[in-house]
Design a protein that fits this description.
With 98 residues, the chain is mainly alpha-helical. It has four helices and no strands. Helix 1 (10-31) packs antiparallel against helix 2 (35-52) and helix 2 (35-52) runs antiparallel to helix 3. The protein is elongated, with a radius of gyration of 17 Å.
Length: 98
Amino acid sequence: MTSTPIPKSRGEVIEGVAFQFCKVATVAFILGRWTLPVASGLAAGLYLWAFFSGKKDTRCVLRYPLVIAAFWAVVSAASVWMMLHPEIWQRLFSGLRI
């Protein structure tokens, strides 16, 4: 007896791709420098696409596509801003004598 697998909805397929970028963005957030804005931006965009394609929950820790998209959009924007303004880091850490 063979059963036919239930086809995934468009939102589920897109969320699957978005979940992969979520994992990449998490690793880059911990270890990387230049991959973070790209991966987190893609994760945010793909989670938005999944949400507007009907996917209302995910396997990601944050659970809801709009929450995840907002989080990764903020991470992406902040990382780009910090790369464009490295003097902020220098002023921030200069007083710490690290």
